[in-house]
Automatic annotation (TrEMBL):
UniProt key word Isomerase: no
Keyword vocabulary terms for this entry: Membrane, Signal, Transmembrane, Transmembrane helix
TM stretches of this protein: 383-401
Source lineage: Bacteria, Bacillati, Actinomycetota, Actinomycetes, Kitasatosporales
Name of this chain's protein: Squalene cyclase C-terminal domain-containing protein
Low complexity biased stretches: 362-372
Region described as Disordered: spans on this chain: 354-378
Domain of life the protein comes from: Bacteria
InterPro entries linked to this entry: Terpenoid_cyclase/PrenylTrfase (IPR008930)
Signal peptide: 1-24
Annotated CDD domains: ISOPREN_C2_like
């Protein structure tokens, strides 16, 4: 939902599900942005690939903890919307209309819908955005990164989150062929008798093979449960990831979520965190995907499986987020919320304070006019997600792009 957000990056390996590249604890600060940073935008790094994404996650997280974002921050997000209802990753000049060269995408649009719905008062914008998303649905019931690419687990789950946020039943959102988002996700579930059985693939490879991907699995567990960025812990444990792996044509969304939760539980039990799927970084911990997995497990009711990764995040997450930026802080806030942990004391760090410091002063805690809060690093996990997506698109890795072929609805 980084990706999933969400955000995250595995596109370069044709399995874009592997979420945002984990930022090493000793990584050097990001270079100065090559473009001017708008005053209402969170983060102070180049927003070209993740402006709308990081802004949306930051606003959702602030609303979740009772903070009222600055009006200029909300206005900036609203101003990014194109005339057709879609949102791009970023457009520097919002005073001109979006043209054919404006790269809009489902991920930015679905994230913006969740943010504007949470804040309230933006029904016209969300309805317009949802219509674009619904028109971009593929025949298989899913969505890809763009409106004309093949369905992937992450993008489909993000749109499910947007539908759920506005109160629409994802099951009722069907393509011209009669398929729902849940059908698309089920088609990406790795069969139980194969390696990684129960997990989800980002997309099938060129031969149609499904490869288990932790990031795609975390996103798809939430998607199968009809959840978005914000999820409550399921105390009933209805999809807790226990029992035998369910398989077959009658696989229900809850079965798929249970299978995925079991896979994540097993993966996290090893080291307490997921590892990066990026080439050359396989030994690095993936903080963003670990946070997303914690949310997914809590939502599935597998709360006992969240203890170890949550402890790991409390120890290592804040330092990562300080480098990765607002989207990363938001992911940690979502993980804290899902597990009933205080985001204002997350391993000794006040995530809310740190998130607020990456953007304009919130209305509830606005500082005197003479004082200005400097932004924090804003590239976050998402920058790499979008960079990878566009690279993959340019190279023509077809399936690997976070895009999915979609048939437009009349």
């Amino acid at each position: 939902m980084n990706v999933r957000r969400t955000a995250a990056v595995l596109a370069a390996t044709a399995v874009l599900g592997a979420a945002a590249p984990a930022v090493a604890a000793d990584a050097s600060p990001s270079p100065s942005p090559s473009v001017a940073i708008p005053s209402g935008l969170y983060g102070d790094t180049d927003p070209s690939y993740d402006g709308v994404w990081r802004q949306s996650l930051a606003l959702v997280a602030q609303d979740l903890v009772g903070e009222k974002p600055a009006a200029e921050a909300v206005d900036w997000l609203v101003g990014q919307q194109c005339e057709d209802g879609a949102f791009p990753a970023y457009r520097a000049d919002a005073t001109t209309q979006c043209g054919s060269g404006t790269q809009v995408d489902t991920n930015s649009t679905a994230a913006a819908v969740q943010a504007l719905t949470a804040l309230g008062g933006h029904d016209a914008e969300t309805v317009h955005a949802l219509r674009w998303l619904k028109d971009a649905q593929n025949a298989d019931g899913g969505w890809g990164y763009t409106a004309d690419g093949p369905s992937d687990a992450n993008s489909t789950s993000l749109v499910v989150g947007a539908l759920a946020a506005v109160g629409d039943d994802p099951e009722e959102q069907r393509s011209e062929d009669g398929n729902s988002p849940y059908d698309a996700l089920a088609a990406l579930a790795v069969p139980c008798d194969e390696d990684g059985g129960g997990a989800f693939a980002y997309q099938p490879d060129a031969k149609g093979t499904l490869t288990a991907n932790a990031d795609a699995t975390a996103a798809a567990v939430l998607g199968s449960l009809g959840k978005g960025f914000v999820a409550e812990a399921d105390e009933t444990g209805a999809a807790a990831g226990t029992g035998a792996c369910a398989d077959g044509d009658d696989l229900t969304p809850q079965d798929a979520a249970r299978n995925g939760a079991a896979y994540l539980s097993e993966e996290l039990a090893k080291d307490g965190h997921l590892t990066s799927a990026l080439a050359g970084a396989e030994d690095q911990p993936d903080h963003g995907n670990t946070a997303d997995a914690v949310v997914a497990l809590a939502a599935a009711g597998a709360t006992e499986s969240t203890a170890k990764p949550l402890a790991w995040l409390q120890e290592n997450g804040p330092r990562w987020a300080a480098q990765a930026g607002p989207a990363a802080y938001a992911q940690l806030v979502f993980a804290a919320h899902a597990t009933g942990t205080d985001p204002r004391d997350f391993g000794g760090t006040d995530l809310v304070k740190e998130l607020n410091a990456t953007g304009p002063d919130t209305e509830a805690s606005a500082a005197p006019a003479a004082e200005e809060t400097s932004g924090d690093d804003g590239s976050g996990v998402s920058v790499w997600w979008f960079v990878a997506v566009f690279l993959v698109a340019g190279v023509g890795i077809g399936l690997a792009l976070s895009t999915r072929g979609r048939k437009r609805r009349p």
